[in-house]
Amino acid sequence: MKNIEYKWVALSCTSLGALLSVLSSSTLIIALPDIMRELHASMNAIIWTVMIYMLAITILVPSIGRIADMIGRKKLFVSGFMIFTIGSVLCGFSETAWQLILFRFVQSIGGALLLAISTPIVADAFPKGELGKALGINGMIISVGSVIGPILGGAFVLIGWRWIFYINLPIGIFGTIWAWRQLKELEILPQKQKFDWLGTLSFTIGMLTLLVALTLGGFKGWLNLSTLVLFALAVVFMITFIKIESSIEHPMLDLSLFKNRILAFAYTSNLLNGIARGAVTFLLVFYFQGIKGLDPVVAGILLTPFALSMMIMAPISGRLSDRYGSRMLSSVGLLISALGLIGMMEIKATTSITELAIWMFISGLGSGMFFSPNTSAIMGAVSPQRRGIAGGIRTMMNNAGSVISMALSMAIISSSITPEALQGLFSGTQVGSQGIAVAQFVAGLRTAFMISFIMSLMGAVISYMRGSEKTDLVKVTS
């Protein structure tokens, strides 16, 4: 029988990993202007500093999840702490923007290991009736990181941007030692499984070309030759991947997971939520800095209503999902998020920050209500031998949605801002609307928020269509 205390120890390990990853991302956003100036970086290089992390995690987590189902969780999770810590220190030593991008890729490998393995560890440690509560606590810790990240980022900028990476060293060392000493392998995993190298290669190339195509489309245009070629390559490699996975005994991504109704609809709603929410905060930073004339640190701090409401709601919705199931909570959560986006659709150059904070708070409440129950439904619908890949796909879907959202948003922003103004806003050398077609920019924001609203509504419908957990109790097994 599982040690009743172990589940909380395991949760402390995964929460620390999540906090480390979120803090690193949220502090980095605030420091980008200083990094851009000190490293004499172009706007393109700075954007890739952010995007390389998102792209790498999206591509890597399914493969890592599959490996976790083969060899166990502990070694991979501890390795994630170590690699993330090493990557952070290397980022702090960077002398050029392209060095920073390379070391951010190293950091992203550690981040992918932490994100892909944390949910299976929690699902292994907690009984199904308490899984929602545990995931809610995990979500609350993530939200705490999102709240304090911009504030810490602003403080670190005052003493030097490199400290946003150096601060990860003591946290990472402690997390590595703590996870190594405390985590256990609780599940007996199948023996003599083979890793699907061919499927993994085709998936990696297919996803990479797809995500890069989406990113280039947002910057250079959707009919750009490079964008079209990358989309074509993505289609070819993903079709190849599906054929490979359908014909081998031990696939990297078990397509039978998508035959489970709960999983298929939970994954789809997760993707749609990622598209709806992925770039909302990104767009508002541009609005606060470009239209309202606020400096980057203040602009970042003004985004905290999202994280505060998620911090409040995530543990509550997690507990409720243990008692009442995930279907209604997840669906209502996306509807509440859509309500907040309705308010943002009315944004104007003169809209007060207080009004925006209210709509952000409402939207964050909805996201907090959606996250824990939806994740609990995914992890509760698979056998222990499939939790790694199930959690990996969930993370991939959410990150892929965020990349799509960022691409659409950049297309909207770049159409209404001169390149000089865009670079100035990124570097922090410009606050105010010089070089911005204000009416066109605000219209673009409204369009982006309308798209987000539609995605949230579609996600709510898809989430509800999953049906009740009681009507689909057959778990996906090996």
Share of helix among residues? over 70%
The average pLDDT is 83
Task: Tell me which CATH architecture of the largest domain applies here.
Answer: Up-down Bundle
Poorly predicted residue ranges? 471-478
Distance between the termini: 23 Å
Topology, element by element:
Elements: H1 6-38, H2 43-71, H3 74-92, H4 97-125, H5 131-159, H6 163-166, H7 168-182, H8 197-220, H9 225-245, H10 261-277, H11 280-291, H12 296-301, H13 304-324, H14 327-344, H15 353-380, H16 387-414, H17 419-427, H18 438-465
Helix pairs in contact: 1-4, 1-5, 1-7, 2-4, 2-8, 2-16, 3-4, 3-7, 4-16, 5-13, 5-15, 8-9, 8-16, 10-15, 10-16, 10-18, 11-18, 13-15, 14-15, 14-18, 16-18
Description:
The protein has helices at residues 6-38, 43-71, 74-92, 97-125, 131-159, 163-166, 168-182, 197-220, 225-245, 261-277, 280-291, 296-301, 304-324, 327-344, 353-380, 387-414, 419-427, 438-465. The protein is mainly α. The chain starts with 5 loop residues before the first helix and ends in a 13-residue tail after the last helix. The protein contains 18 helices and no strands. It folds into two domains: 6-182 and 252-467, MFS general substrate transporter like domains (Growth Hormone, Chain: A, Up-down Bundle); 196-251.
